[in-house]
């Protein structure tokens, strides 16, 4: 008898099949003597659309709401139906005696497999492969330590509860808003509070009133002394008169050295990466979106097999990983990392609780290199960048701390205290791992206590308090991870829960939430900064108050964690979510607000003839038909990867056909044909193939559905006017 192994994606399935020696191709599966390996294409099965429960739901009518299925039905996703049939056929083979779930080891991965098994009517015993990397070694070890499927039953129940509760809240609230205001308005328990945080930040910036502040410095012997208030220890004051009086009092006076001291200080490497920290830093450093970073990580994990599982919320390793560190260092000993890794492999590995802690790892440990030997030439430029970040962080935590000597001088002038600080590097430590890591030393002149300093030249410094900065993807990820500042009630239990559950969304879903908010035109980018659109502002006025608060997600995640541990029944939580859904639908029905398109243009839709809306996509300007049933869209202009020959910024490509023109914010303009000719002469940059690929991408985006989460549902609606 054989075991059927179900992986999440073909690439991982083929890797497992190779390790298990399954080489006979079954078209969608691979077979060997003891195993049959097949795979999903991500989800093959999903929750049914409302019309699957009752034909009346094909029309979106307010009187049909709320829609609350007694039992949720599963349907096969049409686009991947062929692969589902392959899995089902293999599952029901007479010579298959058990199933081994080998999907991604996490809540969503569990759901992928369990829904397939449930839809296919599986009655065979289930085992679970739970691994953090897909190297041959990890797969082999994983198969020698298979777990019983029932150990993950509660994890599956938590995953199904999350999916079903999001269905009833999202589907009902979205239909209610759409019917009420005849506009494409979607909302959900994670995306709506995320949008509300952006709106609040904009409001804070608008309301901000800059306040001037002042300080004093004194210059003597090439050293700058900074005044410090004796009472508050602050180096600035909001009292201009006091600062000016002090300046008058001190001018021409000499200073007396009150104290000279040096202290040896240490600074340790930042912790290892979890997904959110990696996405945050990649956005700041390379302007990668959260989704781009996750996609690159997925390739490095699945295809190159050089990094561990990306969707982790831990920045720590477990003690059992310590024994594999040398092997991982040997695997990365190539190119720029060879000398750095060799420094560590020559001596015993030193670990500490700053990155090794079993209690701080739930499903998966931090992202680190695998034991797979690396060929950097096989990676794209973007893959190299992310790989480099992870490898250097891994090396850094294994290096000793950076040590420096800090010198402090305190000087008294007419009873007022001034200080100066200097720094001398003693041991470069972990900073050696980073390129351009030489430290700038700032030494102070040699001084002794009670020494007189003169002439001291004093001057007033001034500045203004700054408003909070608009969100970027990096700072939005931080706010989603820790939305405590946006809680209306500073409830200790909620704050604790948000800390434990990782805030709004999960490491696996935050990138998709951000993309969805862009794709729904609820927020837009200006440079790197994110701003809410008029549509987003209006939506926030129309949705129920509770849906805008992070507290809802905190509460649900806290309860989902209890379902995963088995201390709360799925049905109890679903009863709560059903009652909540009834409340929000009723609230939307009673709302007396209105929605107005304030971005209408004079351009008529070529499909239905209605006026089109002007919208800003994430990296493009578009015209979109106002009729959500029509859904036609056109890209007017898009930020390209082509660089301006004058200022080297990314240029915008606008127009159609032969009239396509690159324009830059510095004023430079050139036709696409001229640009291609110039690049040919320069012998570098964007090739014809690149341009063709780029144009195909635009064409695909123009044909893509407007609403990501409920695209299929919106495509089918016939709204009763």
TrEMBL record:
Residue intervals of the Toprim domain: 2-135
Region spans: Interaction with DNA: 186-191
Keyword presence, Magnesium: yes
Any one Gene Ontology molecular-function term assigned to this protein's record: DNA binding
Site residues by UniProt (Interaction with DNA): 60, 167, 175, 311
Cofactor entry: Mg(2+)
Record domain Topo IA-type catalytic: where: 152-585
Annotated Mg(2+) binding sites: 8, 104
Active site feature: 309 (o-(5'-phospho-dna)-tyrosine intermediate)
Pfam families attached to this UniProt entry: Topoisom_bac, Toprim
InterPro entries: Topo_IA, Topo_IA_2, Topo_IA_AS, Topo_IA_cen, Topo_IA_cen_sub1, Topo_IA_cen_sub2, Topo_IA_cen_sub3, Topo_IA_core_domain
Gene Ontology CC annotations of this record: cytoplasmic replication fork
PROSITE patterns cross-referenced by the UniProt entry: TOPO_IA_1, TOPO_IA_2, TOPRIM
Alphabetical GO biological process terms: DNA recombination; DNA repair; DNA topological change
CDD domains to which the protein is assigned, alphabetical: TOP1Ac, TOPRIM_TopoIA_TopoIII
UniProt EC number: 5.6.2.1
Swiss-Prot/TrEMBL catalytic activity: ATP-independent breakage of single-stranded DNA, followed by passage and rejoining
Family: Belongs to the type IA topoisomerase family.
Role noted for this protein: Releases the supercoiling and torsional tension of DNA, which is introduced during the DNA replication and transcription, by transiently cleaving and rejoining one strand of the DNA duplex. Introduces a single-strand break via transesterification at a target site in duplex DNA. The scissile phosphodiester is attacked by the catalytic tyrosine of the enzyme, resulting in the formation of a DNA-(5'-phosphotyrosyl)-enzyme intermediate and the expulsion of a 3'-OH DNA strand. The free DNA strand then undergoes passage around the unbroken strand, thus removing DNA supercoils.
Entry-linked PANTHER family: DNA TOPOISOMERASE 3-ALPHA, PROKARYOTIC DNA TOPOISOMERASE
Protein's name according to its UniProt entry: DNA topoisomerase 3
Species this chain originates from: Anaerocolumna xylanovorans DSM 12503
């Amino acid at each position: 008898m054989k075991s059927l192994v179900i992986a999440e994606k073909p690439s991982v399935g083929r890797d497992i099949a190779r390790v298990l020696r399954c080489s006979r191709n079954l078209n969608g599966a691979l077979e060997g003597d003891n195993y049959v390996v097949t795979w999903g294409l991500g989800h093959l099965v999903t929750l049914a659309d409302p019309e699957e429960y009752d034909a009346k739901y094909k029309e979106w009518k307010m009187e049909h709401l709320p829609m609350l299925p007694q039992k949720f039905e599963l349907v096969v996703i049409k686009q991947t139906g062929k692969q589902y049939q392959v899995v089902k056929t293999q599952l029901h083979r007479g010579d298959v005696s058990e199933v081994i779930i080998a999907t991604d080891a996490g809540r969503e991965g569990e759901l992928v497999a369990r829904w397939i098994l449930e839809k296919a009517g599986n009655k065979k015993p289930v085992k679970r492969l739970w691994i953090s990397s897909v190297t041959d070694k990890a797969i082999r070890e994983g198969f020698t330590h298979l777990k019983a499927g029932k150990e993950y039953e509660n994890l599956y129940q938590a995953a199904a509860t999350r999916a079903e509760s999001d269905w009833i809240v999202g589907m009902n609230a979205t239909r209610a808003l759409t019917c009420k205001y005849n506009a494409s308005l979607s909302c959900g328990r994670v995306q709506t509070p995320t949008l509300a945080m952006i709106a609040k930040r904009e409001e804070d910036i608008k309301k901000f009133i800059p306040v001037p502040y002042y300080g004093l410095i004194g210059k003597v012997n090439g050293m700058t002394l900074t005044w410090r208030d004796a009472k508050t220890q602050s180096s600035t004051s909001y009292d201009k008169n006091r600062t000016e009086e002090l300046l008058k009092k001190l001018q021409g006076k000499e200073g007396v050295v009150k104290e000279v001291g040096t202290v040896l200080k240490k600074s340790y490497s930042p912790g290892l990466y979890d997904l959110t920290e990696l996405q945050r830093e990649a956005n700041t450093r390379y302007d990668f979106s959260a989704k781009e970073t996750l996609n690159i990580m997925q390739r490095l994990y699945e295809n190159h097999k050089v990094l561990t599982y990306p969707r982790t919320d831990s920045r720590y390793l477990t003690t059992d990983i310590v024994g594999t560190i040398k092997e991982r260092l040997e695997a990365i000993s190539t190119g720029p990392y060879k000398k750095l890794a060799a420094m560590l492999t020559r001596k015993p590995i030193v670990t500490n609780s700053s990155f090794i802690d079993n209690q701080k790892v739930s499903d998966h440990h931090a992202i680190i290199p695998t034991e797979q030997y690396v060929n950097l030439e096989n990676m794209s430029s973007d893959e190299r960048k992310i790989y480099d970040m992870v490898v250097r962080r891994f090396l850094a935590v294994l290096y000793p701390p950076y040590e420096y000597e800090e010198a402090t001088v305190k000087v008294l002038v007419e009873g007022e205290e001034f200080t100066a600080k200097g720094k001398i590097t003693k041991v470069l430590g972990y900073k050696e791992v980073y390129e351009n890591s030489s430290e700038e030393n700032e030494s102070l002149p040699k001084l002794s206590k009670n020494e007189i300093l003169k002439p001291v030249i004093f001057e007033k410094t001034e500045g203004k308090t700054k408003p909070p900065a608009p969100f970027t993807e990096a700072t939005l990820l931080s706010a989603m991870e820790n939305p405590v500042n946006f809680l209306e009630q500073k409830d200790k239990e909620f704050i604790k829960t948000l800390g434990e559950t990782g805030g709004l969304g999960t490491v696996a879903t935050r990138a998709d939430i951000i993309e969805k908010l862009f794709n729904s035109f609820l927020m837009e980018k200006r440079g790197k900064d994110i701003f809410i659109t008029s549509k987003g502002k209006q939506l926030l006025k129309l949705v129920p108050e509770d849906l805008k608060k992070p507290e809802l997600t905190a509460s649900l995640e806290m309860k989902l964690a209890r379902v995963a541990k088995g201390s709360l029944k799925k049905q109890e939580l679903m009863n709560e979510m059903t009652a909540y859904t009834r409340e929000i639908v009723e609230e939307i029905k009673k709302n007396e607000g209105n929605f107005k398109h304030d971005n209408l243009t004079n351009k008529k839709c070529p499909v239905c003839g209605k006026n089109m809306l002007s919208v800003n996509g994430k990296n493009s300007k578009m015209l979109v038909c106002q009729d959500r049933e029509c859904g036609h869209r056109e890209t007017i202009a898009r930020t390209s990867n082509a660089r301006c020959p004058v200022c080297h910024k990314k240029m915008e490509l606008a127009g159609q056909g032969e009239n396509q023109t690159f324009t830059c914010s510095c004023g430079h303009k050139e036709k696409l044909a001229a640009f291609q000719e110039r690049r040919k002469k320069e012998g570098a940059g964007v090739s014809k193939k690149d341009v063709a690929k780029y144009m195909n991408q635009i064409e695909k985006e123009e044909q893509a559905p407007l609403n990501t989460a409920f695209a299929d549902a919106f495509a089918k609606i016939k709204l009763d006017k």
